[in-house]
Amino acid sequence: MKNAWICLAFGTLLSVPAVGFADDLATNGGFENAGTNGAADSAAWTETVSGAPGSLSERVGAGANSGGFAHKLVAFGSAGIGANSAISQSTIGAGLPSLVGGSTVSASYRGNYNLGPGGVGFRELRVLNGAGQIVAQSGLQVITGGTNGQYQTFTLGPVAVPAIGAPPNDVYSAFVELNVAAGAFVGSSAEALIDDVVITGDVVGGLLTGACCTGTTCSITTQASCSGTYLGNGTSCAGNPCVPAATGACCVEGVCSITTQVACTGTYAGDNTTCITNPCPTFDQVVFNGGFEDAGFGGGGDALGWNRATSGGPLSSAGRDDTSPRTGGFAMRLVAQGGAAIGGNAAAFQNTIGDGGLVSLEGGTTVRATFSGKYTLGPGAVGFYALRVLNADGTIVAQAPLGVVNSGTNGQYQTYQTATVNVPAFGSPPNDVYAAFIEFNMAAGAFPEAFGEAFIDDVSIQGTLIGGGPVGCDDIDFNNNEVFPEDQDVIDFFNVLAGGDCPECNDIDFNNNGVFPEDQDVLDFFNVLAGGQCP
After folding, report:
1. At 489, which CATH number?
2. What are phi and psi of 529, to 5 degrees?
3. What's the average model confidence in pLDDT over 286-303?
4. Distance between CA atoms of 288 and 111, rounded to whole angstroms?
5. φ and ψ at 207, to 5 degrees?
6. pLDDT at 471
7. 259 and 191 part of one domain
8. Whole-angstrom distance, CA of residue 144 vs CA of residue 119
9. Which 3 state secondary structure label does DSSP give 329?
């Protein structure tokens, strides 16, 4: 159990005498409880982060001052962009009643700071009214030196809570915020482990209680009286939260793991199921050149297997780009600029049969897509993504709801996922062949200031192809030296075909039909080399 401080105090409410009990008002101040967003989420705390990759604000199971968990703040600066990582909590937001008017509130916590160049820590305690306005505060306190790998105690307050008045000054909340920040240059960093946060004050109604787990037995106690794990102020024993939740097999993209049903982000196979026989269906990769690593033959940012389209202002563009990939060396960059009375649009799209050279999806199966996107949305800009199933005539026979991106990603890549789409059963032509069709758009409004930019990378479409595996031709960089097209690829291809040794080269089954050596591999190699599609 985390340590708690208890003392007695007296407060008034609307000039009517009332007894208040100074108590620890922090909910989950030891970070022992995970939030709804997973193990790295601290329940009852708001986590915010910005800055270079690696900046984070998350619950961690290592390095705690007491108990099993602490909260870690990391900020990395970058060229021209500072970084910030923070946690904050409002006592009313966490479910507690108002502070007693005319009382005082203070806070303390244990912090382990490691401050690099340009790094600094901040802490502040405020009192907010019902409208969220600051009515009293401790003042911003700055931490400029590290703690040499050790935890130290930091305090805030006391802060005087104003008398109760007319709304919005009829309720008051304690608000504590802890930050680390890094400067706007590469190499600037700040890191902290935060634990044992205590907010000491009086709330209307007096002493706070909640559910206490001692083994699998649940009881209602104060935090100080709990000899086991305290689940938080105001929690109850309904449903006995002390009994561990049942677990079972969870399938996420063909990978099996054991989780609770609530924690499963894929398909839950049921309580007490196992991964011994792997109940998860496996999927084929139903996209060609999803990382945009292979250039096409059109020049100007052409990506092999992808179509592009643009309209609008002169800055509108769509093309393979090496300035900001998530992985590998390239991504697809979409820029849309509006014009006077004309909207802007930039798009990249692929038909997995016509453009990607793959075979048909298997009828009666499912397909879905994921990708990484980094969006910068100016005035009037919005992003879209779509996954459809087309028959041999190009008619849409199934599709996921249109995905809309209406906020930027703060210079970071985020993962996006479409809904799962049911592929129809095979029928008579044209419904005897099905292709997946994936499209990404950036759109800008019909005025010159409208502007939006997106980087798309790591496109993945999970489905089932006829034949039970990924089909299609290899890329034309046969010797994998990242120079193509070139004569050496042709020389190495025929050398391997003749039985020569080339450890870094692809195999000679160029069309991946499982038959080799054969003349069709040679024909398909030269067809793709000339800019054609894989049959």
Report:
1. 1.10.1330
2. -60, -35
3. 87
4. 49
5. -60, 140
6. 46
7. no
8. 7
9. coil
pLDDT tens profile 103-150 = 999 999 999 999 999 999 999 999 999 999 999 999 999 999 999 999
β-partners of residue 218 are: 213
Q: Are residues 271 and 355 in the same domain?
A: no
Residue 224's pLDDT band, with cuts at 50, 70 and 90, is low
pLDDT band at 203 (very low <50, low <70, confident <90, very high): confident
Structure tokens that stand for 191 in this block: 């890191």
Out of 45-49, 279-283, 362-366, the most confident range is 45-49
Rounded CA separation 484/239 (Å): 63
Predicted pLDDT at 7: 30
**What HEC string does 398-411 produce?**
EECCCEEECCCCCC
Do 405 and 369 lie in one domain? The reply is yes
The range of the structural domain enclosing residue 484 comes to 473-535
* CA-based torsion, 90, 95, 97, 100: positive or negative: negative
Tally of domains within the chain: 4
CB distance 373 to 438 below 8 Å = no
Domain assignment present for residue 297? The answer is no
**Is residue 151 domain-resident?**
yes
Instruction: Please state the pTM of the whole predicted model.
Output: 0.43
Sign of CA dihedral 262, 265, 267, 268: negative
Please give the Cα distance from 208 to 375 (Å, whole number): 44
38 residue type, one letter: G
Q: How far apart are CA 194 and CA 212, in angstroms?
A: 23
Angstrom distance (rounded) from CA 106 to CA 131: 21
Tokens 């097209």 appear where?
A: 485
pLDDT at residue number 76? 96
Last residue of a domain, one of 444, 463, 482: 463
Residues 253 and 318 in one domain: no
Shared-domain flag, residues 449 and 481: no
Please give the Cα distance from 504 to 511 (Å, whole number).
18
Asked if residue 387 and residue 518 are part of one domain, the reply reads no
Same-domain check for residues 108 and 192: yes
Using omega within 30 degrees of 0 as the cis cutoff, is the peptide bond preceding 17 cis? no
Here the CATH number for the domain that contains residue 76 is 2.60.120.260
**Distances, alpha carbon 316 to alpha carbons 291, 310, 443, 444, 449, in Å:** 22, 6, 9, 9, 13
Contact of 177 with 12, CB cutoff 8 Å? no
Q: What is the average pLDDT score of the chain?
A: 87
Same domain, 455 and 480: no
- What secondary structure letter does DSSP report for 166? S
Residues shown for the chain: 535
Q: CA 312 to CA 338: how far, in whole Å?
A: 5
Determine which helix (DSSP H) or strand (DSSP E) holds 461, and give its type and residue range.
strand 451-463
Cβ–Cβ < 8 Å for 202, 9: yes
317 vs 255, higher pLDDT: 317
Confidence band of 11 (pLDDT split at 50, 70, 90)? very low
Helices (H), 210-327: none
Is residue 3 in a domain? no
Single residue among 411, 431, 463 that ends a domain in this structure: 463
Which residue is listed with tokens 């049959």?
Answer: 535
Q: Per the domain annotation, does 193 fall within a domain?
A: yes
